[in-house]
Amino acid sequence: MPYVFNALSLLIQVVFSAIATLFLFRLLAEANRADFHNPLSQFIYRYTNPVLAPVRRLLPNWRRINLAALLMVWLALLIERVLIDLLAGAMPFLPGLLIESLADLLDFVLLFYIVVIFIWSLLSMLSADPHQPLVRLAGTIVQPVLRPLRGKLVAGNIDFSPTVVVIVLLLARILLVAPIFDIGARLAQGG
Known about the structure:
Blueprint: H1 2-31, H2 39-58, H3 67-87, H4 94-125, H5 133-146, E1 154-155, E2 158-159, H6 161-188
Antiparallel strand pairs: 1-2
Helix pairs in contact: 1-2, 1-3, 2-3, 3-4, 4-5, 4-6
């Protein structure tokens, strides 16, 4: 039976992580003023706007942050956690569940940046066409995170700023997200 549980958990994680990724791309593309003429930006807008348009009437943007998209990312991760817990035969207490889903959100954003920085760095090392839609969108999203270190950690012709940023993001997952998740897990169990 654990095989069926693992398979269903995997399917739930894939579906809800894909939904969360789509809305997170929308959030970060808007916040970083990604080129709307990029086909990937248009794809993201086309598939997120039907959900976000009604929510944005109730939850408008704060500065350049699309709060409706952030809410959708959090809700996708919350629903994922609830479904997996129900599949496991457990229903955690609400305060713990909310804190765990907050930790999931922070972890998801950090992991998203790690993956996008890695892909962008790999594409730049392979001399990918800078006008390619994926390279442009990834570059737009990672530049604000890399900008403080850009050009300061160069050895030869290699810029190590992406490596340092990835290490900082990994440390944030360990030192920030893990303790929040532990607190949520204790509260979810009623302790």
